[in-house]
Amino acid sequence: MIIDEVEVCDDCCVHSDAVKNAADHMPPDAALYSVADLFKVFGDATRIKILYVLMENEMCVCDIAEVLGMTQSAISHQLKTLKQSRLVKFRRDGKSVLYSLSDDHVHTMIAQGMEHICE
Amino acid sequence: MIIDEVEVCDDCCVHSDAVKNAADHMPPDAALYSVADLFKVFGDATRIKILYVLMENEMCVCDIAEVLGMTQSAISHQLKTLKQSRLVKFRRDGKSVLYSLSDDHVHTMIAQGMEHICE
DNA sequence: TATACTTATGAACAGATGTTCATATGTTAA
DNA sequence: TTAACATATGAACATCTGTTCATAAGTATA
Question: How many separate helices (H) and strands (E) can be counted in chain A?
Fold first, then answer.
């Protein structure tokens, strides 16, 4: 049996009502890709570390680099990603740029993740 | 000034107390990598779609494949990833293997993510 | 303005990731 | 047991991703 160019089994198609139901309750594709992209941002140890550091203090780029033992460039690149996802905000303070967490979602998200792996 | 093989600025090192504080409050590296890995699993649209489908019904592999319009192989590979992260569980039912969500963490995590992108 | 300092960015490279294809494994029914 | 069905898996391939290196852009001080 061929449906939408994809070959599927016959017995399973007995569940076609379930298939239909699931398809109907699916959020729009754009939303699904957006959430996936958001999680992708959390899906890197360096970025998680940066977020943890910023939970303690507002911090400049080179301080973060020092805490993590990484280059300024690497941190700056990652901060750009975090900015684009609106997970961190920033303000200029003289020569430095001070980064901090955008809102409480970051706390909540990470806490939720930690909870899962600690079970 | 050189610290730990990484060059850092001098002015920023005025914040060395903040640096020290942040470093002290950092969870162990293993935990950080584990959370990142968990988020990485959520960081793919196909896997997000699979999880959404499983919110509605317990489902077999080829039904999921049909809903998403993807090959059985692609879905099976992704289900393996989801199993390894304990996000889905499964049981055999005759020839089929029925997959379902492991626990409520999945709901909570995705809801949290959705909330963030909808702001 | 000139210099030093802090951050941002583009290109390049290596390693990771998702899908496909072919096929193996496992289950049921004839 | 044999045939048909459902799922799992390994290898290969193209794409994506994170870091490095070099350097540009922006800011403050002499």
Answer: 6, 5
B97: Cβ contacts below 8 Å, ≥ 6 apart = B60, B61, B90, B91
| Structural domain includes residue A24 | no
Residues 6+ away with beta carbon under 8 Å from A16: none
| Contacts for B3-7: CB closer than 8 Å, 24+ residues apart | B3/A66, B4/A66, B4/A69, B5/A69, B6/A65, B6/A66, B6/A69, B6/A70, B6/A71
The residues near A89 (Cβ < 8 Å, ≥ 6 apart) are: A83, A99, A100, A101, A102
Please tell me the total count of domains within chain A: 1
Residue A17 in any domain: the answer is no
Domain extent for B26:
6-118
- Nucleotide nearest to B72 in CA–C1' terms: D7
Say if B60 falls within a structural domain.
yes
The closest of B53, B52, B55, B74 to B64, measured between CA atoms, is: B53
Q: What is the CATH number of the domain that holds B82?
A: 1.10.10.10
Helix, strand, coil percent content, chain A, rounded in steps of 5: 60, 15, 25
Chain A residues closer than 8 Å to B42 by CB: 35-36, 39, 42-43
CA of A66 to C1' of D24 (A): 23
Bridge partners (DSSP) of residue A98 are A60, A91
pLDDT in tens, B57-113: 899 999 999 999 999 999 999 999 999 999 999 999 999 999 999 988 899 999 999
